[in-house]
Design brief:
about 0% strand, EC 3.6.1.8, 2 domains, about 290 residues, 14 helices, single chain
C-alpha cells in the first residue's frame, strides 16, 4: 500500500485497518460511539492550528479530521447503511441546492433572492432526510445492526433540531438562539444580569448544603445564564472562554518563568508568591493610561 493524494486510497487504507482477519485489532474493535470523541477532538485541533496560525499543523490536523470522516463512513459501509461516496454525494447535492444563485440556471439565479426561497430549500432537505432515515432504519433492522442514535431517535420538538453533540457552551448558545426565534427571550440585558446574580446566590447555597447534585445543577444554571448575557451582546461564549484561557496560560507562564529565573520550581512557591507574580503579569499586560 503506497501513499496517494487520491482520497480513494484513504478509504482503502481504512477498509484494510478494519479487516476482521488482517486488520488492526484496535481499529476492528471500534464503533460509532467509541470513535465520536476522537472526531470532536480532531475538529478542535484544526481550530487550534488556525488560532496559532500554524499552516504545517493545519495540514496535518485536516488530514486527521478527514480520517475521522472516512472512519465513520467505513463503519456505515460495514453495517450496510451508506458509504463514503454517499457522504460526498450528499454534501455536493446540498451545496448545489443551497446555492441556486451560483449553480442554477437564469431562472433559479433570479429566484435565489426571492422571499421564502431558503425556507423551501430547508423544507425539501428535511423531507429528504426523513425519507433517508426510514431507509436507514430498514437496512439496519435487516442487518441486525445498531443505528447511530441521531438517526434512530430524531425528536419532533421545536428544540430537537439542535444536535446535542456540540460543546456545552455552543449547545447552550444554539438552544437559546432557537428559542429566541419564537420570542422566548429578554429584550434587555438587566434581567439577564439579575439572573446571573440570583444564580450565584443559589450556587453558594447549594455549596453550603453539601449537596453535590444540587451544586452541579446550580453551576449549570449559572453558566447557562452567562451564555445568555454573551448572546445578548453578540459575543460567542466559546470564543470568550478560549480567550480567557489563553490569558490565563500567559499569566501562569509568567509565574513559571519568574520562578525559574531564581532557580525555583512551581511546586516550591507559596500561593501568596504565585499570586504576587500573577498580579505582576496582569499589570504588565494592562494597556497604558495616558
Amino acid at each position: 500500500m503506497t501513499p496517494s493524494k487520491d482520497v480513494a486510497r484513504l478509504v482503502e487504507i481504512m477498509a484494510a485497518l478494519r479487516d476482521p482477519v488482517t486488520g488492526c485489532p484496535w481499529d476492528v474493535e471500534q464503533d460509532f460511539a467509541t470513535i465520536a470523541p476522537y472526531t470532536i477532538e480532531e475538529a478542535y485541533e484544526v481550530a487550534d492550528a488556525i488560532e496559532r496560525n500554524d499552516a504545517v499543523d493545519l495540514r496535518e490536523e485536516l488530514g486527521d479530521l478527514l480520517l475521522q470522516v472516512v472512519y465513520h463512513a467505513q463503519l456505515a459501509t460495514e453495517a450496510g447503511l451508506f458509504d463514503f461516496g454517499d457522504v460526498v454525494d450528499g454534501i455536493t447535492r446540498k451545496m448545489i441546492r443551497r446555492h441556486p444563485h451560483v449553480f442554477g440556471d437564469a431562472e433559479a439565479r433570479s429566484a435565489g433572492s426571492a422571499k421564502g426561497h431558503w425556507e423551501r430549500i430547508k423544507a425539501a432537505e428535511k423531507a429528504e432526510r426523513a425519507a433517508l432515515r426510514e431507509t436507514v432504519a430498514t437496512v439496519a433492522l435487516t442487518a441486525d445492526t445498531p443505528v447511530p442514535e441521531a438517526a434512530d431517535q430524531a425528536g419532533s420538538g421545536f428544540l430537537d433540531g439542535v444536535p446535542s453533540g456540540f460543546p456545552a457552551l455552543t449547545l447552550a448558545l444554539k438552544i437559546q438562539q432557537k428559542a429566541a426565534k419564537v420570542g422566548f427571550d429578554w429584550d434587555r440585558p438587566e434581567p439577564i444580569v439579575g439572573k446571573i446574580v440570583e444564580e450565584i446566590d443559589e450556587v453558594a447555597e447549594a455549596a453550603e448544603s453539601g449537596d453535590r447534585d444540587a451544586l452541579e445543577g446550580e453551576i449549570g444554571d449559572l453558566l447557562f445564564s452567562a451564555v445568555n448575557l454573551a448572546r445578548y451582546h453578540e459575543i460567542d461564549p466559546e470564543s470568550a472562554l478560549r480567550r480567557c484561557v489563553r490569558k490565563f496560560r500567559g499569566r501562569f507562564r509568567h509565574i513559571e518563568q519568574e520562578l525559574a529565573a531564581t532557580g525555583r520550581a512551581l511546586e516550591t512557591a507559596s500561593l501568596d508568591e504565585m499570586e504576587a507574580l500573577w498580579i505582576a503579569a496582569k499589570t504588565r499586560n494592562q494597556p497604558a493610561v495616558s
